[in-house]
Design goal:
alpha+beta; 2 domains; two-stranded antiparallel ribbon; about 50% helix; disordered C terminus; binds adenosine-5'-triphosphate; binds magnesium ion
Length: about 280
């Protein structure tokens, strides 16, 4: 793996600055999009409820028609119903409504998680590692849907004092790397464990793994082996994890690729809320 190992260049803008600009831009965009999506999903959900009530009334009406008909008319009515495949339509209607409701609920969760991720002023919250990981997974639903076998074992429900969007970002960065390590699909395991002191996120993949001589290098800002990578994902994740009193490590995975382990103590660095968010320059120092 030959990385684009970048040495400091005076003409280059500091990594923290680039990243802060990117996050500010993303934050603004996200807030706008989330607002639009929220409104739209709001009336979709409300219309679906009305549709559900109306179809129930229609179903009851259709069921009652029989009682008002003479035998020959009833027979014609039944053959009309059969011709229109009413039984199947009735069944499908219920299922379609249910699936669409689930879609709308999912969209609501995505919007809520996106908003949490883009929260402009990061403040600490009492939230579990599992909740943060679930938030990250919701955002990555689409990317994970196809071609990947994804195992989830979330077992860290203890409430921690963390900056939620940052912990979500760690989960997203690690999972995203695991996906990119297997561009044609593969196997991922996302698990959390808690030993009472540290809650730890483990992301295992079946990709090529990290070569032993690169296990430190991968955490350096700008180190990337991807044509369009910034090389900041792991540097940012490492900084976030450290400011949460934990550690980010890489080791070989039993799945054949890499295992990244991000531990969180739940004890925030005293400056965590005020220090420059995701500032890889601080990591580099
Ligand atoms: N799961 C993994 N398997 C194998 N190599 C990995 C894995 N995760 C990271 N790496 C290596 O570490 C490098 C640095 O990762 P990092 O997330 O910091 O940056 P990036 O993914 O290249 O770019 P960015 O995250 O900014 O899009 C990657 O380019 C890759 O070579
Ligand atoms: Mg990355």
């Amino acid at each position: 793996m030959g990385g684009r190992d970048q040495r400091p260049d005076p003409a280059r803008r500091p990594a923290g600055e680039i990243h802060r600009d990117k996050m500010a831009c993303l934050g603004e965009l996200t807030v706008g999009i989330a607002h639009e999506l929220n409104n739209t999903v709001g009336y979709i959900a409300s219309n679906l409820n009305t549709l559900g009530r109306y179809t129930d009334s229609l179903r009851r009406l259709v069921d009652r028609v029989d009682g008002h008909l003479k035998p020959d008319a009833a027979a014609r009515w039944h053959s009309e119903l059969a011709e229109a495949r009413w039984e199947q339509v009735d069944r499908d209607l219920a299922q379609l409504l249910e699936e669409t409701r689930e879609g709308a609920d999912h969209l609501k969760r995505v919007v809520a998680d996106l908003k949490a991720l883009a929260r402009p002023t990061p403040t600490s919250e009492s939230v579990s590692l599992d909740q943060c990981v679930e938030g990250g997974l919701t955002i990555l639903t689409h990317a994970l849907k196809h071609r990947y076998q994804v195992e989830r074992h979330l077992a860290a429900p203890r409430l921690l004092n963390v900056i939620r969007p940052q912990v979500m970002q760690v989960a997203i960065n690690l999972i995203h790397n695991a996906l990119q390590a297997q561009p044609n699909g593969g196997h991922l395991r996302i698990s959390t464990v808690d030993d009472g002191e540290y809650a730890t996120l483990l992301v295992d993949d079946a990709g090529p793994g990290v070569p032993p001589d690169k296990v430190t290098k991968v955490f350096e800002p700008y180190y990337t082996t991807k044509p369009s990578g910034t090389g900041l994902g792991l540097a940012i994740a490492a900084q976030v994890v450290r400011s949460h009193g934990g550690d980010l490590t890489v080791s070989p995975s039993d799945l054949g690729g890499a295992r990244f382990a991000a531990s969180f103590s739940g004890l925030l660095h005293p400056r965590a809320e005020t220090m420059c968010l995701y500032d890889p320059d601080e990591v580099a120092q």
